[in-house]
Each structure stands twice: as C-alpha cells, then as structure tokens.
Predict the structure.
Amino acid sequence: MKTLYIIGNGFDIAHKLDTSYWDFRVYLARTYPEFLQEFEHMYNIEQFDPSSPRVSAGAYKQWEKAVRNELWSEFENKMGYPNISEMIDISTSVLDDMDLDSGLVGIEDTMDSYWADQYGYIKELELHVKEWIETVNTNKVVIFGWSAGAADLPYLCVIRDFVSKNTKWYAYYHDDTAYNSLNNAMSSEDIEKKYEVNYIPAVEFWDQI
C-alpha cells in the first residue's frame, strides 16, 4: 500500500503547539494592540474592553465568539474581504477635501499612494507572523525525505536559529548517500555542535506509523 500524508496546521495543534489563527490574535493583542485594533477595524470589528466593570464575563465571551467567526476562524479566506463600502466612503471624502484645479488628472496615483499607506498593514502583518512563529516552543525536529541540497540549506539554517537550545533532531535517511548528505549538512551548518542529532534508517520511521 502506498500512502500519501498531507500535513496541515492541525498537525501542529495536535502536538500542543499554539499555532491556530486565534493564538496569533492573542499574540497581537499582547504585543501589538494598536496594530490589532486598526487591523480588525478594517473588518468591522471594534475592540471590547473586558476590564470594564460594565462588561460581564458572558458578554465578553459572546464578543470573543463573534470575533472568531467574523474573521479568525477562516483567516486566510476572510482577510481578503475588508470593508469595501468604508473604503469607497473614505475615497469620496478624500476627493471632496482636495482642491483639484486640474480635475481628476493624476488622481489615480494619488489614491494609490493613499491606500498604500492605509493598507500597508499587510506587510506589517507579515512581519508579525514571522515574529510570532519564532515564539512557538519547539523541542523536536524530525527530518524525513529531505535531500539536504545546497538550495535547501538556508531553510535549514532558519530552523536551526529558531528552535530552542534543547531541541533534539532526528534525521531519517534512505541509504548511505542520503546519510552522508544529511551528515554533511548538519556538520557544515553547525547543527551537530549546537544540538543532539540522531541519524536513523528511514525504515524505522515507517515501523512507527
């Protein structure tokens, strides 16, 4: 029997890693609250202060559930649909406030620049995602079916620099050629100096499935 394993984010969560989209929101609320407020405002989500004496625990849970459903439960799909009506209203207001002696000549470039500033949060979001991933505690790295070619080494170095110092590495190899390739990569990138690295025949991996 030939089996194809398709591994998604649920694999991380099943291994008790806080990598859900909601976990990312919790991280933003703790480290970049102003960014989170501006970001969620684009999707008609206003902030809710749970510390207010007028806010009950039940009300906050209802708000939290609504926020999950409105945006974070399907973040990849929903982030591409901000409040378009508000964007149009803002564009109209910007045009009304401008003294356009030459009519609409060059207005497209002006509005492109305006929205690039207003919606530049996408680039900032990318940076925050990277920072958040670096906070996820990983203490075991398993390598299987990886060629350890020269083009792959930068990716290996990123993992090396992000995982905790007590991380154990398990490199499964198919044959002597694969073993030598993995061993050279681990040695050249100083992974063997910094971590415990275990080389295991690939057949033993399948025995565990």
Q: What stands out?
A: The chain is about 55% helix and 10% strand. The longest strand covers residues 168-173. Residues 84-118 form one domain. The CA atoms of residues 139 and 209 lie 21 Å apart.
